Amino acid sequence: xxxxxxxxxxxxxxxxxxxxxxxxxxxxxxxxxxxxxxxxxxxxxxxxxxxxxxxxxxxxxxxxxxxxxxxxxxxxxxxxxxxxxxxxxxxxxxxxxxxxxxxxxxxxxxxxxxxxxxxxxxxxxxxxxxxxxxxxxxxxxxxxxxxxxxxxxxxxxxxxxxxxxxxxxxxxxxxxxxxxxxxxxxxxxxxxxxxxxxxxxxxxxxxxxxxxxxxxxxx
Length: 219
Fold this sequence. Notes:
Order of helices and strands: HEEEEEHEEEEHEH
CATH topology: Protein Transport Mog1p, Chain A
CATH class: Alpha Beta
Strand content: 25-35%
């Protein structure tokens, strides 16, 4: 249990790094800060990953890393990607306008674990760590799902980012081949639903691939 808690903490540290890194992608004019007083017209829900009818007109590229991460995934051609310390990668959307200060993103992080870790345990670890580290954390939905024929969990939640803007996020977590994989989608509340078809396609395209140890050990 101690090992899993440590590794989960590492994942949350990664999410903070990504949040700050996304601000350096583009410099925009100053606008008034949004606060937790923002309201939503609908309650965001976890996406149904069994629905294969979701479509998007975006063109996609393939991200593949077989040197350190051992993953392959499709992502929109106009999104940026950043690898973080060999423990994950973040895909960041472009600004929609010159005043767009929140860039929607999908983070993929992984860490070692034994396959005996239950889906409920993974979900509870995530929720408890978010409660500790995220300002204004509120759990919206939590449920067990199936992802790539493996037991998985999805949680939807809100929190305030470092500029006190309200963020809606959705995580999908699963254990496979002695690794826990966590997909975390974060969005402005007004854009959460509109980006979901893109996120759906990205996550459903995810594959694990063998790591080329010969390549990764080269100086």
